[in-house]
């Protein structure tokens, strides 16, 4: 008669391995949350800086230049699209 292998707990597995795994996952999640909070704070500061620059730009007359440049780019893109559509026909 053949013997069947039975899974016996190893000497290092004291029944708390699941707890160690859980602790590792909780620590990793905490570190990720901390990193995301730092990133969030950095992004909020960057938004404030850009809003200040935008306010300064619009008040100094650069807004008109940006509008003109945007219109120029839009026109060029529209011409490129028309050209591509013509090639596809």
Overview of the molecule:
- The chain is mainly alpha-helical.
- The chain has helices at residues 17-59, 62-88.
- It has a domain at 27-88.
- Helices cover 79% and strands 0% of the residues.
Task: Reconstruct the topology from this structure.
Blueprint: H1 17-59, H2 62-88
Distance between the termini: 79 Å
Discrete helix count: 2
pLDDT < 50 stretches: none
- Main sheet? none
Helix- and strand-based class?
A: mainly alpha
Shape: elongated
If you compute it from the alpha carbons, what radius of gyration comes out, rounded to the nearest whole angstrom? 31 Å
Topology, number of strands: 0
Average pLDDT number: 83
Q: Would you list the SSEs in sequence order as H and E?
A: HH
Quote the beta fraction. Answer: under 5%
Search tags:
89 residues; mainly alpha; 2 helices; 79% helix
Brief digest:
The chain contains two helices and no strands. The chain has helices spanning 17-59, 62-88.
């Amino acid at each position: 008669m053949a013997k069947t292998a039975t899974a016996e707990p190893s000497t290092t597995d004291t029944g708390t391995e699941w707890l160690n795994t859980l602790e590792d996952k909780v620590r990793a999640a905490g570190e990720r949350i901390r990193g995301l909070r730092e990133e969030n704070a950095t992004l909020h500061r960057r938004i404030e800086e850009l809003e200040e620059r935008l306010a300064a730009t619009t008040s100094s007359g650069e807004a008109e230049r940006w509008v003109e440049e945007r219109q120029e780019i839009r026109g060029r893109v529209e011409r490129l699209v028309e050209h591509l559509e013509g090639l596809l026909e």
